[in-house]
Amino acid sequence: MALLISDECINCDVCEPECPNGAISQGEEIYIINPSLCTECVGHHDKPQCMEVCPVDCISKDPGVVEDQDSLYRKYLKLTR
Asked: Per its UniProt record, what PROSITE patterns does this chain match (predicted)?
């Protein structure tokens, strides 16, 4: 699954620089995650770094974008070519 930032986001700016794939950007009101770039940090880290640094725990798995570990790893390989 890709990750999703909820409307509880306080725009603290700590998640965006932690994303190794550049999947996080400022949306109209809160930060957003581009599911085509999000690998949940597979290939880079053991845990999603945005979730690790979020002070309000507003980042969760996106039920609308279901991916398994293999899919996330293939996406990582494609993004890092």
From this structure: 4FE4S_FER_1, 4FE4S_FER_2
CA pseudo-torsion sign 10, 29, 62, 73:
negative
- Which strand (E) or helix (H) includes residue 71? helix 69-79
35 in Cβ contact with 1 (< 8 Å): no
Backbone angles phi, psi at 41, to 5 degrees: 70, 10
φ/ψ region of 12 (left if φ > 0, alpha if ψ in -120 to 50, else beta) reads alpha
Asked: is 3-79 a CATH 1.10.1520.10 domain? The reply is: no
For 71, phi and psi rounded to 5 degrees?
-65, -45
Query: Residue 1: what pLDDT?
Result: 72
Q: Where in the chain are the domains?
A: 3-79
Q: Which residues of the chain have pLDDT under 50?
A: none
Which helix (H) or strand (E) covers residue 70, if one does? Answer: helix 69-79
